[in-house]
Amino acid sequence: MIDASDRAGLFMTTIDAVTEGGDKIRCDACPVMCYIKPGAAGACDRYANHNGELVRVDPHIVLERTVSHGGRLVPFQAGGDWDGKIVHEPNVFVTAIGAGTTYPDYKPAPFIVSSQIDGVDMVTVVTEGIFSYCGVKVKIDTDRHLGPETATVRVQGEAVGHVSTGEYGSQMLSLGGVHHLTGGSKKEGRVTCDALMDLSNCKPVELTIDGGATVVVQAGYPPIVNGVAEERMRVGCGSATIGMFAKQWQGKVDEVVVVDDHITGVLSEHQAGKLLDIPDTGIKMKGRRSTPGRYFQVAEPGTGWGGTRISDPLSVLGPFNPKEARPGLTMLMVSTTGEHAAFYVLDEALKPVETEMPLDLKLSVERIQENCEPALCTVLFMGGAGGSLRAGVTDNPVRLTRSVKDALTRVTSGGAPVYVWPGGGITFMVDVTQMPAGAFGYVPTPALVAPIEFTLRLSDYAALGGHMDYVRPLTSLRDSTEVRPMPYMPGQRA
Amino acid sequence: MKRLPQIALLPDGRRLHLQDGPIDLVIEAKGRTTEICAAYDAAAHRFAGLLDELCEELTTLRQAADPAQCTLEGVVARRMHAAVAPFAASHFITPMAAVAGSVAEEILAAMLGAAQLERAYVNNGGDIGLHLTGAEQFTVGLMDRPDCHGLMRMMTVDADDPVRGIATSGRHGRSFSLGIADAVTVLARTASQADAAATIIANAVDLPSHPAVIRSPANEVQPDSDLGARLVTRNVGPLTENEIEDALRAGAHKAQQLLVAGLIEGAALRLLGETVVVGSTGEAPALHAHHESAIENVVHA
After folding, report:
1. Taken in order B216, B220, B221, B224, is the CA torsion positive or negative?
2. Do B58 and A45 touch (CB under 8 A)?
């Protein structure tokens, strides 16, 4: 995370720390002489035991983009080797995490930092925005049916959001929003706020969908649907899978059915099969035919084969047509992820009988698996910077909005890039896995506290009515004024 | 390497910041410029060496206070003892429960001894000593949880009020709590009294042996904790509305006792989104406890 060459300048020296019987250390920074256990901080919250080493924990997170996600002890230029430069690397960025704010933000944002980038004075207005209009958009990579669209999503029985659209290989959920946060019962608001905060801080949250599944969602991890961890996203719908692999199946098997909740594909009838002159097999599919070789609704959605509820793939087939079928005809049935696959040979009565799959077909199934990307949950925090937050930045809030739209002001959240929606206001989305750990907090409104930074040229800042009196050089942040502890870590702080 | 306290004005140029080890003071004085300078000089002067003074008696300060007699010598240490002594007969309490308020009080006294001020405060991490004259007021914003930001409600202290100390205790702060309160804010005549009382009331907001409350011995988490092996609250799981009410009622009962005994002027108790107010808090003069919703007290962005 932080290599040895950086260490000396980043952390206070360790010579004063005395190792006491194994893991705890005794801090010698002041006469209190705290004993500090690993992972804990001393009484001052300034010094901590990091793997047996006494380190200084900083008031602000000066984020190096290269510091991997999850790093908690981050570089802080408090040592004696200050070389006068405002920032050492262009990548060092002061984030709003821990900047603190009041609500409403009638006071200037806690930190308005000037630094020089490319010789131009830049200003980063660092604040923690309080968002009562906020939520998360969750993308769950799965073919399994999680619940009907618009169904209510619950945490601890409280409604926190709803099932949104199905996307390619994924199910979207929309959670939070002002109506769940403050429009319902007090408990609904509290549970919603906690769920949003946990999801945004990359912690796992169990969601129950009315008339659907129970899903454990954690940003950056596979979803766990009804207790089973999802492994892979499908390579494509059943029809697309036929198109991709038809040539590899040609000559190795007579028929292939790719079972899919959305569009089930049948090789012999599919355009791809026709182009390869694959003969008819007399197969009879259940479901509604869309175009040749493509079937909708072969089975009810569920958590079985290809996002359907079936466990026996033969249940999607009717009897083979004796005019075209023949004994000995071979058939591969496979799901869109290759997770389920079976091989059949028609007997004298034209009934499919499951048989050991030939090696080359096994390889084709593995190829489908290989082409499926790992299934993940992704969480985008979405919030709107309201009037009062903008007032903390400038005395004419709408000019900040215009400045953002005109791309003169760059918006980041915890140093992570954001997407600012077109249209009015400053409504942005950010991938929570790009943000430092513990970036989100809450207030009892209930509303989420999220870091937000506006970076612009000093001259532009003055022009839009910035609080010029409060602009501080980046160097001034190196002293310990306005220290606050590192992000709250339940169970770790002493 | 000689350790020096940090003494600096905050960037606003008005407030003084003093820090040494775990003591972190934010100070503001109002009055004539020369008086403010004299007050800040006195504060900085008194602050230098104060931590060392306390640490000389740290071993005794970390032991249960004797309700009848005080063997401590330092003036701050003796104030700490005096603040906790009224509780020492019936509760386990060490003088450390009043350390923050007692330090705030000491620095405030040094400032007032050196200058004529219209208004001043010494804020020691939320434990605050106040000086008010004439029409001056002090407005306090209450936080829901010390580890999160955001104001829950405002309270105003006038010069006419007897209140000169404000302190907050709870399970999220720097110190451990034996109870489950998210925050208990106490108004009292002095900062040291407020500090000790906040600890006692926060400890009383509790649901003994409730399975959702995770506790562990204090010294397992912080080896030199003055609470020794006593079980301190580490986490509070989901509670029903009735359980929240029961826990708050237990705390409010304790607060009411302290109010009647004249040890506090008012208290606001907070647990999982519910608030109970006891006594005078600058906006709720009634003597009976009542519930309030946080949502009603905060406007939208």
Report:
1. positive
2. no
Residues of A in contact with B152 (CB under 8 A): 444
Number of residues assigned to chain B = 301
Partners of residue B149 in chain A, C-beta under 8 Å: 100-103, 128, 130, 441, 443, 449
Nearest to A298 by CA among A258, A325, A242, A339: A258
Segments making up each domain of chain A, as ranges: 1-78+479-494, 93-133+386-478, 134-229, 238-370
Q: Which of A197, A103, A130 is nearest to B153 (CA)?
A: A103
- Do the chains contact at A128 and B149, CB–CB below 8 Å? yes
Q: Are B100 and B127 in contact (CB under 8 A)?
A: yes
Cα Rg of chain B, angstroms: 19
Burial label for A455, CB within 10 Å (0-12, 13-18, 19+), is buried
Give chain A positions within 8 Å (CB) of B241.
187
Contact between A449 and B149 using a beta-carbon 8 Å cutoff: yes
Round to whole Å and give the CA distance between B59 and A147: 61
**A387 contacts on B by Cβ (under 8 Å):** 301
The torsion defined by the Cα of B255, B177, B143 and B207, in degrees rounded to 10, comes to: -60
| Cα separation, B78 vs B97, whole angstroms | 13
> A65 to chain B, minimum CA–CA distance in Å?
25
Rg (CA), chain A: 29
- Nearest-Cα distance to chain A for B101, in Å, is 16
What DSSP string describes B205-261? S--TT-TTEEEEEHHHHSTT-TTTT-EEEEEE----HHHHHHHHHHHHHHHHHHHHT
Which residue has 């003169």 as its token pair? A408
Q: How far apart are the first and last CA of chain B?
A: 49
Give the closest-approach CA distance of A451 to chain B in angstroms.
Answer: 12
Q: What is the pLDDT along chain A (494 residues), one digit of tens a residue?
A: 233 322 222 222 233 344 444 578 888 778 888 888 887 778 776 677 877 777 766 433 333 332 333 333 323 333 333 333 333 333 344 445 544 433 333 333 334 444 444 445 555 555 566 677 889 999 999 878 899 999 999 999 999 999 999 988 899 999 999 899 888 888 899 899 999 999 998 999 999 999 999 999 999 999 999 998 887 777 778 888 998 899 999 999 999 999 988 889 999 999 999 999 999 999 999 889 888 999 998 888 877 888 788 889 999 999 999 999 999 999 999 998 888 999 999 999 999 999 999 999 999 999 988 888 888 999 999 988 765 566 666 677 777 777 777 777 778 887 788 888 888 778 889 999 888 777 787 776 677 878 787 777 777 777 777 766 666 666 566 543 333 333 323 222 22
Contact call for B301 and A481, based on CB within 8 A: no
Q: Which domains does chain B have, with CATH numbers?
A: 6-297 (3.10.520.10)
ipTM of the complex: 0.79
Tell me the nearest-neighbour CA distance from A361 into chain B, angstroms.
52
Question: Does A208 contact chain B (CB < 8 Å)?
Answer: no
How far is Cα A274 from Cα A246, in angstroms, rounded to an integer?
10
Strand partners, A441: A449
Closest residue of B to A44, CA-based? B22
Name every chain A residue with its beta carbon within 8 A of the beta carbon of B141: 102
Answer whether A441 touches B (CB < 8 Å). yes
For tokens 């569009």, what's the residue?
A263
**Inter-chain touch A444–B301, beta carbons under 8 Å:** no
The pair of three-digit structure tokens given for residue A411, joined into one six-digit string = 């918006």
Across A356-444, the runs of DSSP E, i.e. the strands, are 377-385, 410-413, 416-417, 419-420, 426-431, 441-443
CB contact under 8 A, B148 and A442: yes
A8: enclosing H helix or E strand: helix A4-10
Taking contacts as CB-CB distances below 8 angstroms, the residues of chain A near B11 are: 470, 472, 476, 481
